[in-house]
Structure of Immunity protein 63 domain-containing protein:
Amino acid sequence: MSAHGPTFRGFANPVDPSPAELRAWAYQPDSVPLTSLPQDWDLLVAGDHLVLTLFELARDPACPARRFALHCLYIYAADGIRTKFRAHPRRRFRRLVEQAERDGDELVRNWAHNSRMLLARQELFTYHDWCEGGLVRDNRRLG
């Protein structure tokens, strides 16, 4: 038993996990290794249904899957911005960015800054940085 709930035993449907399943997995990510999940699982979970859970996990320095959650937030931001918010609601995105700027630590504030930079200058998008985790690994701010 962990501080975040009972032992995670797997997803009912890994292609469409519930927020509770994602949260439980994030605190015990070795219970179901990423390599055993569907290909491009990060792209599958980086949607509106789970974005609030991902945001919560990315803000928790104690979460073992924090960097994965942050990576998914980068995918979410890029997807929304590059589709001119047809993929995700602008209002939800804006609220997350504002909350990250207000309450986030350096990692989360960098996500907010980089998201605003991409919104202003879409030519800053590279698949490597936004969808393959480059900005998370480098923890850098776009200029």
User: Anything to note?
Assistant: The chain has a mean pLDDT of 93. DSSP finds eight helices and no strands in the chain. Residues 19-138 form one domain. The two ends are 44 Å apart (CA to CA).
